[in-house]
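In the laboratory, one determines a bound structure by crystallizing the protein with its ligand and collecting diffraction data. In a computational setting the workflow is compressed into a single prediction: the sequence and the ligand go in, and a structural description comes out. We illustrate the idea with pyridoxal-5'-phosphate.
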Amino acid sequence: MPEYIDLRSDTVTHPTEEMYDVMRSAPLGDDNLRDDPTVHNLETLAAELTGHEAALFCPTGTMANLLGTRMFTKPGDGVVMPPELNMYRYGVIAWNSLQPIFAPARTGYPAIDDLVSAIERGLAGDTPPTLVVIEMPHNGAGGTVASPEYIAQVRAVAQHYGLAFYLDGARVYNAVVATGQPLQAFASQADGMMFCVSKGLSAPVGSILCGSRPLIERATRTRFLMGGAMRQAGLLAACGIYALNHLVERLQEDHDNARQLAQAVACWPQLLLDQPSVDTNMVYLDVAKTGMTAEEFCHRLADHGILGGWINEQQVRLVTHRGITSADIEKTIKAVDAILLQTQVSC
Ligand SMILES: Cc1ncc(COP(=O)(O)O)c(C=O)c1O
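The predicted complex, in C-alpha cell form:
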C-alpha cells in the first residue's frame, strides 16, 4: 500500500519499536488458565489506575462492552443512553437483547434533567431500565469530553433510581489529557467501565474491562464463551503496559493537530465543523455544501494521498494519532483547499 496520511481512525497506529522489545521479553503463560503473568500485570495496573477492584484483558472494545453491559442487565432490560453511542450503532446493545431508551444529547452528554426524564419514562414503560451508559470521549459527537462533576452527577442519578452505571471509556485517556483530570475522577465513578489500549495509545490489540471482583469473575467466564480467552496474550498485554506507562502524555499532540485542522475549516465556506467542540483527536466535517457525498469527498482526498472516513452521506471523520504530524495536517489542509478550489470557493 502506498504511503498515505491515514486519518480514518487512531486504531491504525502501529506498535512502537519499544513495544516490539517488550513483546520479545514478556513472560508468558496461558491466559485461559489465568496464569499469564504479563496479562496479570496489565490487569492489576488497569485496576489500580481506574480505581476498580479488578480488570479483564479483552481482545476488543466491542467485546469488553458486550461483557460490561451484559454483567449489569438481562435480556429485555432497558438501557438509558445518549443517541449515537458506539454500542448502539454497532450492535452491542442489540446483541445483548437490550432496549435503548434515549436521552437527547447534541454534545454526547444528556443534560441531567433529560437523563432523569429518560429514566422515569423508561421506568414507567414496558422495558424498565437497569443500566445507564455514557461514552467518553463521545466518538459520535466528535470526541467530546465531559467533566468529572458531570460524570459524578450521572452516577448519583443512576444510584438514586437503583440503576447501574457503565462507562464506555474507549478513549478515556484522551479525556484525561484534554481535561488534566486524573483517570480515577472519571473511571471510578462507574460501576463498570472499559478503556482501549489499541486506539490513540498505539498498542496493536486490547481493551480492559474494569469493575468489582465478582463482576470480573463472571465476565471472565463469559469472555471464554465468546471466544475471547487468548492463551499467550501477554505478548499483547506487554504493549498495553508500555502504552500506559509511556504514551499517554503524547496524546496532547494529537489534540493539537486536530485543533489545527479544525481551525482551517472556518476558512472553507463549503465545509461545516459538525461537532460542538474539538476536545480531543477527532474532526467531523459536514460536506453537503460541496455537492459531493462524504464518500466522494474521501475518494478525492485519497487522490491526494489522504485517507478519511465517511460516516454517512454527508459526514466525514478525520482522526489524528501518533502517525500524524503537524506537517501532515498542513498537507491535508492544502489538499482540501485544492479539492474545494475545483468546487469554486476556497480560503
Ligand atoms: C467509543 C468506542 N467504544 C467501543 C469501540 C469498539 O472498540 P473495538 O474496535 O476495539 O472493538 C470503539 C471503536 O472505535 C469506540 O470508538
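Residues 5-11+250-341 form a domain with the Aspartate Aminotransferase, domain 1 fold (CATH 3.90.1150.10). Keep in mind that any predicted model is a hypothesis to be tested, not a measurement.
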